[in-house]
Design brief:
The protein is α/β, with parallel strands linked by helices. Helices cover 38% and strands 21% of the residues. It catalyses: an aldehyde + NAD(+) + H2O = a carboxylate + NADH + 2 H(+).
C-alpha cells in the first residue's frame, strides 16, 4: 500500500502499541476521499491477549482507592485539554467534521465526562449504604467493579464516545478493551497513549481495531463482563443478543427518529434555529437528530420562509477554516445510503423538495472527490413516508404539519424508536406537560442537542438500554453486594428441639 498521512494503527495493550496480525484496511479523509492511515485488524489471538492484559490489570486497579484513581484520571483530563486542537485536527480529518466543531465540542465534552466521573468517585460516588435493621443487626452494601469491559465505539463522535465509555468504566475500577469504529479509528491509540502518560497502569485501557467480526468476537468472549455499544439499532440487537447469551451487563445507545414539536406560540426564529441544529449540525450524523419537525399548519409558510433564508448560513468549505460549519458525510458507503434516501423522498414518497436534493453540490476546490451532499429539506411530508419512518443519519429534514397539540404528541410517539424529543414554546407549563407525554429518554425544551456530563442520557423502546453520564451513569459500571450482619450472638433456626 502507498504511504499514508498517519503512521499505521495496530493494537494497544500492556501499556504500549502492539503489532496486530489481522487484515489491513484504510482510514479515509471524507472531505477528499484520500487515505489517512493503514489500520491493522486484530485477530482472535490479538483480542485474547488484549483481554488477558486487562484481566491481569483488573485486581490492582479495582483495589486502588477511588481517590487515587481519580487523581490519575484528572491528569488525563489535563492532557486532553492541553492537546485539544491537536486531537481535534485528527478527528476532523478522520470524520470530515469541521474543525470549528471538533475543537469546541468533541474533545472538550469528552474531557468533561472524564472529569465528572473522576470527581464523582473521588468524592465518594462509589460509597454504599448502611441500614440498621434492628438493634443488633445491620445491612451494608458495597459497589464493586465488574471486571473487564468491552467498549464498542461509533464513527460519528469517536473520541467523545470513547471517553463516555472509558471514563465511568475506569473510574469505577474496571478495565476496558475498546474497539473504535473501523470508519474512524485514529483516536483509539491517541486516547490510550494519553491514559498511559497520565499514569493509568498497563492493561487498564486497551485498543483493538477492526470491523464487525472483531466486535463480535470481543463482545461474545467469556472474559468480558460488560458490553457498552453505540451504533445502529440492527447491530445493537445482535450485540445485545450475544451479550445476553453470556449473561453480561450491557449498555446500548442506539438510533432514533426523533420529533421536534414546534408549539403554536413558539418564536419562529428560535424554532427555525432549533430545527436547523437538530438536523444539520455535524452534517446530520447525530443519533439524537430531530428529523421529524412537526409544526402547526398555520405556521408552515412563515417557518419555511425563515428556514430558507437561514439555510444560507450553512457554510461548507475548508474544514480547518473556523467559519466552515458543514462537512461531508463520513464515508462513501454512507454517502450513497443518504443519497438513496433523498432520491426515494423525491421519486417514491413524492415529498415536496424545499431545498437541497440528490444532485452533487458545487465542488469545493481540492475536495471535488469528497463525500459532500446538499443540506436537504422536504416539506408536505406524511407519516407513512419512508423518509419519515426510517433513520437517514444525514442532513435531511422532514417538515410535517398538525392541527392539535395532542395529535402532534400521538404522531411523535408513533415509532418503535424513542431516543430523543423536544418542544419549542413560550409556555413552559405546556412544555412540561408535552414533554411528560413524549416517549423518549432524552428531551429538550427550547434547545436541541446539548448533552452535558451531568445529564444522564439513554434511549427508550428500541433506541437503547441503560444510560450514560450523570450520577446514574456510574451505576452501569458496578455491581452491588449486600451483607447482613447479625450481632445478637444467637443464630435463628427453625430446627430447634420442641
Amino acid at each position: 500500500m502507498a504511504d499514508s498521512f498517519y503512521p499505521p494503527r495496530h493494537c494497544y495493550y500492556d501499556g504500549k502499541p502492539k503489532t496486530a496480525s489481522g487484515d489491513v484496511f484504510r482510514s479515509v479523509n471524507p472531505s477528499t476521499a484520500q487515505p489517512l492511515a493503514d489500520v491493522h485488524s486484530a485477530s482472535h489471538s490479538d483480542i485474547d491477549v488484549a483481554i488477558h492484559s486487562a484481566q491481569q490489570a483488573f485486581y490492582s486497579w479495582s483495589t486502588t482507592p477511588p481517590v487515587a484513581r481519580s487523581r490519575i484520571l484528572l491528569r488525563a483530563v489535563q492532557l486532553l485539554r492541553e492537546r485539544n486542537d491537536e486531537i481535534a485536527k485528527v478527528e476532523t480529518q478522520d470524520t470530515g467534521k469541521p474543525f470549528s466543531e471538533t475543537s469546541t465540542v468533541d474533545v472538550v465534552t469528552g474531557a468533561d465526562v472524564l472529569e465528572f466521573f473522576a470527581n464523582l468517585v473521588g468524592g465518594g460516588g462509589l460509597n454504599g449504604e448502611t441500614t440498621q435493621l434492628r438493634e443488633d443487626a445491620w445491612v451494608y452494601t458495597k459497589k464493586e467493579a465488574l471486571g473487564v469491559c468491552a467498549g464498542i465505539g461509533a464513527w460519528n463522535y469517536p473520541i467523545q464516545i470513547a471517553l463516555w465509555k472509558s471514563a465511568p468504566c475506569l473510574a469505577a475500577g474496571n478495565t476496558m478493551v475498546y474497539k473504535p469504529s473501523e470508519v474512524t479509528p485514529l483516536h483509539g491509540e491517541i486516547l490510550a497513549e494519553i491514559y498511559t502518560e497520565a499514569g493509568v497502569p498497563p492493561g487498564v485501557f486497551n485498543v483493538v481495531n477492526g470491523g464487525g467480526h472483531v466486535g463480535a468476537y470481543l463482545t461474545s468472549h467469556e472474559g468480558i463482563a460488560k458490553v457498552s455499544f453505540t451504533g445502529q439499532v440492527s447491530t445493537g440487537k445482535k450485540v445485545a443478543s450475544s451479550a445476553a447469551a453470556g449473561m453480561k451487563y450491557t449498555t446500548m445507545e442506539l438510533g432514533g427518529k426523533s420529533p421536534v414539536i414546534i408549539l403554536p406560540d413558539a418564536d419562529i426564529e428560535q424554532a427555525v434555529d432549533g430545527a436547523m441544529m437538530a438536523n444539520f449540525f455535524s452534517t446530520g450524523q447525530v443519533c439524537t437528530n430531530g428529523t421529524r419537525v412537526l409544526i402547526p399548519k398555520a405556521m408552515k409558510g412563515p417557518f419555511e420562509q425563515r428556514l430558507l433564508r437561514k439555510m444560507e448560513y450553512i457554510r461548507p468549505g475548508d474544514l480547518m477554516d473556523m467559519n466552515t460549519n458543514f462537512g461531508p458525510l463520513v464515508s462513501e458507503i454512507h454517502y450513497k445510503k443518504v443519497l438513496d434516501y433523498i432520491k426515494h423522498g423525491v421519486e417514491v414518497d413524492k415529498a415536496t423538495l424545499l431545498c437541497g436534493g440528490p444532485e452533487k453540490p458545487k465542488a469545493i476546490k481540492g475536495m471535488e472527490d469528497g463525500f459532500w451532499v446538499k443540506p436537504t429539506v422536504f416539506t408536505d411530508c406524511t407519516d407513512p413516508m419512508k423518509i419519515v419512518q426510517e433513520e437517514i443519519f444525514g442532513p435531511v429534514m422532514m417538515i410535517l404539519t398538525y392541527e392539535e397539540v395532542e395529535e402532534a404528541i400521538q404522531r411523535a410517539n408513533a415509532t418503535p424508536l424513542g431516543l430523543a424529543a423536544g418542544v419549542f414554546t413560550k409556555d413552559l407549563n405546556l412544555a412540561h406537560k408535552v414533554i411528560a407525554k413524549l416517549e423518549a429518554g432524552i428531551t429538550w425544551v427550547n434547545t436541541w442537542g446539548e448533552s452535558p456530563a451531568e445529564m444522564s442520557v439513554g434511549g427508550w423502546k428500541q433506541s437503547g438500554v441503560g444510560v450514560e453520564n450523570g450520577k446514574k451513569g456510574l451505576e452501569a459500571w458496578v455491581r452491588n453486594k449486600s451483607t447482613l450482619v447479625d450481632m445478637s450472638g444467637i443464630v435463628p433456626t427453625v430446627f430447634a428441639k420442641i
